[in-house]
Amino acid sequence: MIPSGAVGDRFRRFRERLADENGHRPSVTTPGGDQAVRRSGEPPGRRRRRRGGGAEELRVPEAEFTSYYGRPILKGPVWKWDIAAYLFTGGLAAGSSLLAAGGQLTGRPALRRAGRVTALAAVSASAVFLVKDLGRPARFHHMLRVAKPTSPMSMGTWILTAYGPAAGVAAIAEAAGVLPRRGLLGLAGRALPSIGHAAGLLAAGTAPALATYTGVLLADTAVPSWHEAYPELPVIFAGSALASGAGVGLLAAPPAEAGPARRMAVAGAALELYGAHRVETRLGLLSEPYRLGRPGRLLRAGRLLTAGGVAGALLGRRSRVVGALSGTALLAASVLTRFGIFYGGVASARDPRYTVVPQRERVEARRTAMDLPSDRAEPPAV
User: Averaging pLDDT over each range in 62-66, 122-126, 177-181, 329-333, which range is the top one?
Assistant: First the structure.
């Protein structure tokens, strides 16, 4: 019977000879007295503790993030710029309905009229962008066959179905003043203000869901920088919707009636800037797509315009020109913010780093919490 120590010596000599034949450098003795083979020209690998108190170097290099047979690890979104525009017009419609409700409840007809007309125009544009993405109008109708609370797309379809007619009736009610006083049209003209009042409040009640469901929709995908930002995206979109609605009020209403618009601008800017700061700092590696390249430039420009628009709304409250410039800045900031968030998610889906590294970090964290050995460690030497 061969002693176990002799077997270990033979195996060690065999391993060293095999390493020499493959062109590797001879084995290197570690501080703990153990030996490990190191590839020539490679930097020292990570060390792993052994039972005997020593350590040996890992010979497996870190993996590079490449595609699989030329295909990306994650299939990116097929959405184009029209969906980014849809994100903006949906938020603009929601913010305009809230602005119109504020003007309606406080007796500001110019603010109410501007909000209702803009809401109808924006939701009509949203329908065009959505149908263009779906390919056929009938597909929108098919979404109404079921109501699935766990599906943001299904809920969004029903939200649009409830919001669109209400916003349309509220906007049509603004034409009551130009209808004849007698006959059927006169009867319709007398009934429209009350109907428009109820429809405007219904649209405003649905507006928060319309403003935020698109953020939930993006976060429900597998796109890394969208999915990880699920707490912040609805906040950013809500703030952007309020800011864009405030921009409409500052543009269309005289300074004496623009008080609700100024308050909306402050609230919307606070939510938008807070959410944008969070997605650019909280997500670690997944914050990079929101800071670099085109998304980073769009989001930085959006922040500057938002801050400038709010400052102009507060400091130039007596000037119609300053108010109009502030409203334009807020609307432009909302566009840039929506497009920046959209393109940031697309960029994170294209680079495999943003898929692989967070997955490895989560796996390592679970292993650490369960006190399991790392899957990167090499089996113990015989």
Answer: 329-333
Whole-angstrom distance, CA of residue 97 vs CA of residue 158: 17
Give the 3-state DSSP-derived string for 216-257, with helices as H, strands as E and coil as C: HHHHCCCCHHHHCCCCCHHHHHHHHHHHHHHHHHHHHCCHHH
- Angle between helical axes of 259-281 and 233-252 (0-180°, round to 10): 150
Number of C-alpha atoms within 13 angstroms, CB side, residue 313? 34
User: CA 300 to CA 296: how far, in whole Å?
Assistant: 6
> Which residues, other chains included, contact 59 with Cβ-Cβ below 8 Å and sequence gap of 6+?
36, 37, 38, 39, 45, 378
The CA-based diameter of the chain, rounded to the nearest angstrom, is 118
| CB-based contact 152:217 (threshold 8 Å) | yes
Query: What pLDDT is recorded for position 262?
Result: 92
8 A C-beta contact, residue 324 and residue 272 = no
Q: Residue for token digits 């399991």?
A: 372
SS3 68: strand
> What is the rounded CA–CA span in Å between residue 295 and residue 302?
10
What's the chain's length in residues?
382
Predicted local distance difference test score (pLDDT) of residue 38: 45
Q: How far is CA 347 from CA 37, 324, 357, in A?
A: 40, 35, 15
Look up residue 48 and give its two tokens: 């792993």
C-alpha dihedral sign at 90, 93, 96, 98: negative
* Rounded CA separation 256/285 (Å): 47
Q: Give SS3 for 49.
A: strand
381: amino acid identity, one letter = A
pTM of the model: 0.75
Half-sphere exposure of 166 (CA within 13 A, CB side): 25
Rounded-to-10 torsion of CA 60, 65, 66, 72: 140
Quote the CA–CA distance of 310 and 238 in Å, as a whole number. 16
pLDDT band, residue 354 (cuts 50/70/90): confident
